[in-house]
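Chain A, query sequence.
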Amino acid sequence: MIDRTIAPAYIVPDTYVLPKVNTLYLDNGIPLHLLLTGHQQVLRIEFIFRAGSWYEPQNGLSFFSAKMLAEGTTQYSSKDIQELFSFYGAFIELTSGHDNASFTVYFLSKYLKEILQLTHHILTCASFPDEELQNLKTIHSEQIKVNLEKNAYLASTAFREGLFGKNHPYGTHLSLEAIEQISSGNVSEYARQFLCLRNGDIFITGYCRENVYEEVNKLFGKNSSSNIHPKPSVNAESIHPDRSKRKLILREKSLQSSIRMGKQLFTIAHKDYFKMVFLNEILGGYFGSRLMQNIREDKGYTYGIHSSLQMMQHAGYMVIGTDVKREYTLHTIEEIYKEIHRLKTEPVSDSELQTVRNYMIGTFLSSLSTPFAAMDKFKTIYYNSLDYSFYDDYFKSLKQITSEDLMDVANRYLSDDFYEVIAGGET
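Chain A, predicted structure.
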């Protein structure tokens, strides 16, 4: 009979399997990244452009330019486009981030030709109708008005603004004032310069019986194309952080406070990135972390508290975030600094080290379970000018990191100059 009081033995794998992406070039030089694997006859095609807020000359241009791609073309209205994608059982995502903007379509493999024709038409014939733009501006203005009543939103936006400066691409956020300044003219001009194939890459992932390269090249490899090198925003190289220790966004009627605290770090290419990832996991990266054990389980100040490393192409930062009852605000911040101090002065025990090590190895392996996830891993190294050895080194580091390594990076990077934002109250 099995003794249920004894945990089953676990095995830490020695290797991992990550399918490699095949990078080809269309006749006109546009990069095409293919990962044709899996069993389900589903494809994901992504058009990713170097067109995020890092490059925009005006706040909000990247966001609205990306959103407007599917709002009308010279041939179709926004309703027509929605119905066409629905007819093929496809759905689209239009996103804009700090570094890139993307147009993504998920669809059944048998409709490859039809989807390629439709996406090509959208990318080359988008008309950016003013009526649709005004509707989008109204929708997002109303969303912002709602968000401005939320402590978490106020704290998060103020935190990034304090780290980088309100005009820096990584510190700015979409505001009502910025939306008001957006026009169909500057949106279409930004799209013409940045949301064009010569400023991007094509990524296709999934299973397909057809010659995907040939079909893509027929449409997207025709026109002459020479890669452009977009220039960063005029504010991109100028970081003006808030030099104060703490920013308080006082809201007298609020019963809770949202806390965001952290500091600038580095990108994933930094030599200490793997160690900082491990250290962050111990501090607040998973449900059994020290911050959760102390501030949730022991003190009962919050339902959840987490720390994370946010990595962009040109910078990175650490952030700790939680929501607590107003009267526990300063006590929570005090306990966070206590846990940071422990990491700097007390070696992590062997048992905790092994628990986090096993958890992170398991999380990494599970993150490779689908073709889409494997392509996402590739995009991470591709846009940070790395290669697949990055994941070999990461997997190796998870097994080799010691408590001494963690104390070392804690003392070098977790200094007491954390920037703090409190939205609510600090009593």
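The first strand starts at residue 22 and ends at 25. The first helix runs from residue 61 to 68.
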